[in-house]
Protein: Alcohol acetyltransferase
Organism: Lawsonibacter faecis
Amino acid sequence: MAKQKKEPKPGWYRLDNAGVLYSAIQKEKYSAIYRFSAVMTERVDPDALQRAVEKTMPRFPGFRVRIKKGAFWYYLEPNNAPGPFVKRDISNPCQPVRFKEDNGWLVRFFYYERRISLEVFHALSDGGGALVFFRTLLAVYLRELGHAVPNGEGVLDVDEPPRPEEMEDAYTRYAGKKVLRGGWARTAYPNKSAAEPFYTLNVTMGFVPVDKLKAAAKAYGASITEYLTAVLMLSIMENQKAEKPRHEKPVALAIPINLRSGFPSETLRNFILTVRPCIDPELGDYTLKELVDYVHHFLRLNINRQQMQATFTGNVRFTTNKLLQIFPVFLKNPVMSLSYKLVAARPYSATYTNPGAFRVPEEMAPHIQRMEVILGQATRPSPHCASISYGNIMEITFAGTGVSSETERRFFCRLVREGVPVRVESNRTG
């Protein structure tokens, strides 16, 4: 009798297009983990925070899962194991995820003094979905402390059942007929240095006034994201020039774009796409004004609904390719890892993401001092950059496993020269 094919358990669901990639490339030396933190005005009560986690998790089934390896693909299933448990914070955040440890949980909760932190494996959700989850968790936590916080303004009602649209695979829903076909992007300057001992994540945070930053960007006729992208590109170009290479490589950034504005969706799963502003230093030196102008026009030219749809349609077709479907997962993972290295790592010098302002109901506002964000380790010892604002404070983080701190030093010094005051904190010991 032929052996019957083992089907996943009831309640399972497929990973979205981005989740397929992140699950395949996960390994001990690389993990797509990111962290959001809220620094509260009062010291954190860990017991109240644990109760808030237990009340919030059932409302978000996309975070209450474990990942399982099927014969052909990874998939997600509900996690009914104990936890996740609130833990005292650690010195090196965004540790690699190990699918069979910690009862299979793919989200983590930490506290330290006045800071509450959430870490998420990127296969579950992008920053947009995770911030809805985190905002709701903070609201429930404040209620546990006796504060009246209403639902709405991004806070979901944890007493209501989850809505199906929050779990949709928006990539598949909006995939079109046209595929944008492009050639291989040139290898970018990797901006790497000697590696720290495993596992050491160097984190440097700069805190700047939003009004001063906005004024600096406005002087160039740009948004804050455009301005900071240009400052980062200039800092990396200066790093390469200081090395005095015989031939300079392009400097390119991966800028994640939230697709929900162009393709209406209430999904709390992944729904982002990256664009690639790129400068070739061998064409000559660039002033900051020239870089800001380039980024400003590049983003406006490339962030359009038609082009983005054609791009992620190609990604969806790749993961749903019938030939790829028949290969077992142990053969597919190396192919996906190689694809990631060639398409999502090699052509970029760094990632910069800015989810924007973190807004909460006015009843919550007095209890939060500031927000923070950290991107986990890159595939090489080079720093990634992320920023988030709350009120008049924008927090900008550089995080990586490289020894060098030149990128962040050049970046923040440039802001100061531009008239933007910066207060810097770091976990570096040297």
